[in-house]
Structures are given as C-alpha cells and as structure tokens.
C-alpha cells in the first residue's frame, strides 16, 4: 500500500502541544514499519483440523443392536479372553420386539466407512473449513464371521460378549436373529488396524468353564505392502519409488 511522505519532518500534535522534531531517517523507519503492518496477513497460517469421532460413535443408533461388553484379557499366545456375565449364560434374549426400521439419506454419513470390492473410503459431512488432507485409517468397521457359537451365547447380548473380544461391536447381518440357525453368524465390528485381528476368542463364565469361538474376516481393508498403511495399495502409495 503506497504511503505518501509528509512534507514536514515534524508531525503535528492534535492536542496543540509543541511538535517533537524527528529526523528524516526516523521518519522513514516509521513509514516502513507502517507498510509492513499493513501488508502482514490477517489469516492464520494453518487451521487446526477438528477431531474426528470414531465410527462406533457416529454409527446410527437405531441400526446398532450390539454393544461393547468389556475389554478382553489376553493369553500368552495373544488369544483374547472375554468374561461373560453370568446372566447371559442363564437366559436367552428375546429375538423379536416391536420395532420400526427406517432408512434416510443420512445413513451414508452415519455409517461413515464404506468398502466396495477392494476399494475403501470414508464419508464425512461437508464443511467450509474441512481438512482435505488424506487421513490415516486406524480403525475400520469390518464384517466378522463368528463360527460355532454355542446356543447359550446365541442372542444379541451373547454375540456382543464374543465380539467384544475383537473390537467394538456394531450390528448383526440379520435382525432379528434366525432362531433356527445356530452356530455361525456375521457381525460388523470396529477393529483396531494397528493390531493383528484374532482368529479365536475364548469366552469364560464365572465357574471357570470356557468355550472357544473361531473368527473369520471375509474382507479386511486393503493394506499397502510398501508403507504398511491401510486404505490404499502400493500402486497408489505416495511413498512408493517412482
């Protein structure tokens, strides 16, 4: 911004006092400081990104029929062990209650994480100050098949017990559960991708009895063989050699 130089080296005091005399050099320094202040940017260099809630926290509550029972302990070989509440082994849950399932367009955002074939992506609501930088995938809702579930645990709460040994349970593939099909069931669980998914979960009761449930993962998120991060392949890795 151009600033004109006063014709006099003695600025006028608006209060009528005798003006203080300054040299031309001091006057030039004052003008240069004023120009630098006028040219300094008023917008901050960077805007901190908002904290992104977990997929489990964003998941639509009316679709979530499973819950986190407790955190597992681990055997020496890494097998997770989950303690089943005594009440879940003495009763079976009601498989059907009066309810209404409604689908709105917001469910795309509420699910948050999507995977089509070998391509996975996250969906967030648009904001004017949104962060467009690629975010590392640390947790992901993933389909899990629980094998050989005993009848005593074949209920929504019982399945929640088993799935809690894997991660944060979200919902079953079928709601209500099929009362005539025991054994295997498919559930969606938010898993920690920094840890190796367990292949077996051991459930124990208060009497010391235990049962082992095998776990299968039909489609884990894609993992880059170059950088070891999830959600992209090596041919799309920014750190891959060119």
Automatic annotation (TrEMBL):
Top-rank taxon: Eukaryota
Record field: compositional bias (Low complexity): 1-11
Region (Disordered): 1-20
InterPro entries: At4g02000-like (IPR040256)
Protein's recorded name: Uncharacterized protein
Organism phylogeny: Eukaryota, Viridiplantae, Streptophyta, Embryophyta, Tracheophyta
């Amino acid at each position: 911004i151009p600033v004109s130089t006063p014709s006099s080296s003695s600025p006028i005091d608006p209060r009528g006092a005798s003006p203080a005399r300054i040299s031309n050099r001091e006057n030039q320094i004052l003008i240069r400081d004023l120009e630098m202040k006028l040219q300094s940017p008023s917008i901050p260099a960077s805007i901190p990104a908002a904290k992104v809630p977990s997929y489990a926290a964003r998941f639509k509550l009316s679709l979530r029929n499973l819950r986190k029972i407790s955190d597992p302990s681990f055997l020496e070989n890494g097998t997770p062990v989950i303690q089943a509440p005594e009440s879940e082994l003495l009763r079976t849950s009601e498989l059907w209650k009066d309810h209404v399932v409604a689908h709105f367009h917001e469910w795309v955002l509420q699910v948050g994480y999507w995977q089509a074939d070998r391509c996975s992506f996250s969906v967030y609501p648009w904001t004017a100050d949104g962060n467009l930088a690629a975010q590392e995938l640390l947790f992901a809702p993933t389909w899990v098949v629980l094998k050989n579930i005993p009848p005593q645990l074949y209920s929504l709460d019982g399945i929640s017990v088993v799935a809690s040994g894997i991660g944060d349970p979200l919902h079953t593939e079928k709601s209500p559960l099929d009362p005539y099909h025991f054994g295997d069931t498919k559930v969606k669980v938010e898993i920690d991708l920094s840890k190796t998914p367990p292949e077996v979960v051991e459930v124990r009761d208060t009497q010391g009895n235990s049962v082992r449930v095998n776990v299968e993962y039909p489609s884990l998120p894609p993992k880059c063989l170059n950088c070891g991060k999830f959600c992209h392949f090596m041919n799309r890795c920014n750190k891959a050699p060119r």
